[in-house]
Design a protein that fits this description.
The chain is mainly alpha-helical. Helices cover about 55% and strands about 10% of the residues. The chain has helices at about 5-55, 85-90, 105-110, 120-130, 145-165, and strands at about 80, 95, 100-105, 140, 140-145, 170. It has a two-stranded antiparallel ribbon with strand order 1-6. α4 crosses α5. The protein is elongated and about 85 Å long.
Length: about 170
């Protein structure tokens, strides 16, 4: 704005044109957001009765909850199981998820859940499994003796187990 004369006038004009175009874009965005919000409200108003009707028809089709726990869809870098499941796994293979569903853990899941406190990564969990001499590490019904193959197999099994635990609603974000 320090330019005087006709160059300053041209710059001021260009700035005003740019501001007007930006305002038009902002208004267009605002109108689009309002239209999208209205459409979503109409869809939400239709969805509610349909969900209730489906629940009334068969309560096993839909689970309705007033509580929405922060469960992990996929296991994080250092997976964390819900505290109640970690405690229950110390007592046996049966645990309960936040939705009060009873889950029977397989041997690997039962062994891992108490260690899923957010301090162990996959490599540490794999080492814990390999260090436990009571867990049989087999492939095709035969015990593995090669440490490299054993480590790779256990790492893959730990990864699969963690994804299963997340699917069962036992891991938190």
């Amino acid at each position: 704005w320090h330019t005087r004369g006709w160059q300053g006038a041209v710059l001021r004009y260009a700035a005003l044109v740019e501001a007007a175009q930006a305002e038009e874009r902002l208004l267009a965005y605002w109108r689009a957001a309002q239209a999208a919000g209205a459409r979503l409200m109409r869809e939400a108003e239709a969805l509610g009765p349909n969900l209730l009707q489906g629940y009334a028809y068969d309560s096993s089709l839909i689970d309705l909850h007033a509580f929405a726990p922060c469960l992990a869809v996929t296991p994080g870098e250092r997976p964390t199981a819900i505290p109640s499941a970690r405690f229950q796994a110390l007592l046996g293979h049966a645990v309960t998820n936040p939705y009060h569903h009873h889950i029977h853990l397989d041997t690997l899941g039962w062994y891992l859940v108490p260690f899923l406190d957010g301090t162990h990564d996959r490599e540490a969990l794999t080492r814990l499994v390999l260090a436990n001499q009571t867990l049989a590490i087999e492939k095709g019904g035969e015990a593995l003796t090669d440490p490299e193959h054993k480590h790779a197999l256990v790492l893959d099994q730990v990864e699969t187990c963690l994804h299963n635990l997340a699917h069962l609603g036992l891991l938190v974000e």
